């Protein structure tokens, strides 16, 4: 079984959010998840949906601002063993190239 999530933890403040975002990402280390951070969100992969949600909760709780907005989008593959790399590879195979801009 594979469980994927798009996680976006947004501290609501007029101050710089870098420290809080870093704390949220660092909190993921406490859990059995793989993750990759992008400029807009963090992608998580886990074998267990409960572990995935626990990781998301830890990231949310790690933020120290008075207001936090957290978005979690989950995809669970219950009958297929598939990784995030497998998903990207399938799209790149269909494209015949890497799934990123070729513009410089």
Automatic annotation (TrEMBL):
Record-given protein name: Thiamine-binding protein domain-containing protein
Gene Ontology, cellular component aspect: cytosol
Transmembrane segments: none
Region described as Disordered: 79-104
Domain Thiamine-binding protein: 7-92
Pfam assignment, any one: Thiamine_BP
InterPro entries: MTH1187/YkoF-like, Thiamine_BP, UPF0045_domain
Family (UniProt): Belongs to the UPF0045 family.
Organism for this UniProt entry: Natronolimnobius baerhuensis
């Amino acid at each position: 079984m594979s469980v994927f999530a798009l996680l976006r933890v947004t501290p609501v403040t007029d101050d710089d959010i870098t420290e809080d975002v870093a704390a949220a990402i660092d909190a993921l280390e406490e859990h059995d998840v793989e993750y990759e951070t992008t400029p807009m969100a963090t992608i998580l992969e886990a074998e267990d949906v409960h572990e995935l949600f626990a990781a998301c909760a830890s990231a949310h709780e790690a933020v120290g601002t008075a207001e936090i907005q957290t978005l979690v989008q989950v995809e669970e593959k219950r009958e297929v063993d598939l990784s995030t790399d497998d998903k990207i590879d399938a799209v790149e195979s269909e494209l015949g190239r890497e799934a990123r801009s070729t513009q410089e």
